[in-house]
Amino acid sequence: MEYVYKTKGTCSTSIELNVEDGIVKEVTFWGGCNGNLQGISRLIRGMKVEDVIRKLEGVSCGSKTTSCPDQLCHALHEMGY
């Protein structure tokens, strides 16, 4: 399933996801820290959604209460995971 999530409280503005059978197939962040977000996208490609959520949910960025990885988890929850 392809999904676009509008982020809240981060430098990235949106996340495009493709998840099939509970496996992350592709993730693209728009805006934000390009190198770091490309790295995260590559690292989680092929991972089970539940593992991504377990590892990244709740990560904060500086004094913010959320981060791009945390917003990715919000997107995955909105998708029903």
TrEMBL record:
Nucleotide-binding recorded as keyword: yes
Pfam families linked: TSCPD
InterPro entries the record matches: CHP03905 (IPR023806), TSCPD_dom (IPR024434)
GO molecular function: nucleotide binding; ribonucleoside-diphosphate reductase activity, thioredoxin disulfide as acceptor
GO BP terms in the entry: DNA biosynthetic process
Enzyme's top EC category: oxidoreductase
Limits of the TSCPD domain: 5-78
Catalytic activity: a 2'-deoxyribonucleoside 5'-diphosphate + [thioredoxin]-disulfide + H2O = a ribonucleoside 5'-diphosphate + [thioredoxin]-dithiol
Enzyme Commission numbers on file: 1.17.4.1
Keyword terms: DNA synthesis, Nucleotide-binding
Family under the similarity heading: Belongs to the ribonucleoside diphosphate reductase class-2 family.
Protein name in UniProt: ribonucleoside-diphosphate reductase
Organism name: Bacteroides faecalis
